[in-house]
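Long-time lurker, first post.

We've been arguing in lab meeting about whether NAP would sit comfortably in this protein at all. Half the group thinks yes, half thinks no, and nobody has a model to point at. So I'm putting the question to the forum: if I give you the sequence and the SMILES, can you give me back a predicted structure of the complex? Inputs are below. Any interpretation is welcome too.
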Amino acid sequence: MEQKRLALITGGTSGIGMGVAKALAATCDLALAYAGNHDRAKAAAETLAGTESKVILFPRHLGGYHDASLLYQDVVSGFGKHPEILVNSAGRIRDGFFLQTDFSAHEQLIQEHLLVTMALSQLALKSMYGKRYGRIVNFSSISGTYAKRGQVNYAAVKAGIIGFTRTLALEVAHRGITVNALAPGLVRTPMTAGIVQYLENAGRKEIAKHIPAGFIGEPEDIGPLAAFLCSDHARYITGAIIPVDGGRSLGDTGI
Ligand SMILES: NC(=O)c1ccc[n+]([C@@H]2O[C@H](COP(=O)([O-])OP(=O)(O)OC[C@H]3O[C@@H](n4cnc5c(N)ncnc54)[C@H](OP(=O)(O)O)[C@@H]3O)[C@@H](O)[C@H]2O)c1
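Top reply:
Settle the argument with this. Predicted structure of the protein with NAP, as tokens:
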């Protein structure tokens, strides 16, 4: 029997990462990395238990190269093989006005989103390079391109992920490795619970004012696209930054 590909998904136990895990479950074994919410991770593993995938949970707070490297070693020993698919979805927000935010919050955000994405990509690429096959999907955001007050550090990392994705894609394309990023708008996850509740309380008109599609995205609106980018069918797509935002980035200037 042909061996399933192994996908390492950081943040794979919640929100968007979990949406990607569900979409990949039919075709891949899954290494789901998370920071420390064990109840949520257990629930995610139970949801995936009915699938044919082998699923292993890897709790580890990722704050830089050292943590990423320990996680990567654990994944390789847990499955006895290297991941051919890497989805970098882990991360939080630390919003606040620039001048009022302690600089350590900016440093942490850059480490957790950008440096961990870079570190895991470098670790996984060594094996992908040899195999002449690999898929990397990163998570940028609409905030990587469009400004929103209070999101200086988040905008910086999400813009950084765009530059990283496009440049890395160029460097590794000749080895059968693709590197792409999704740039979601608002998606209903634990991370966005506050803003989602605010918009839903405000009503449909308020939602439609911000999101042309008129509704808030779900992880299921992201997962299948990420899974497609991770598939053999997507071999000719690399360096793409794909908005998934119900039209929010179209820039409607109104009247
Ligand atoms: N939701 C949106 O509207 C939206 C829009 C654009 C972009 N994004 C991006 O999409 C990605 C996923 O967001 P989400 O909304 O799905 O978030 P989420 O539901 O809060 O899930 C975050 C996941 O990442 C893990 N995680 C967070 N920080 C970590 C760390 N330092 N080390 C290891 N694991 C860590 C969490 O683990 P624990 O559960 O153990 O804490 C959890 O599994 C993020 O990169 C986010 O910036 C989200």
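For your lab meeting: DSSP finds eight helices and seven strands in the chain. The helical segments are 15-24, 38-48, 65-79, 103-131, 152-172, 193-202, 204-210, 223-229. Whichever side wins, do check it experimentally.
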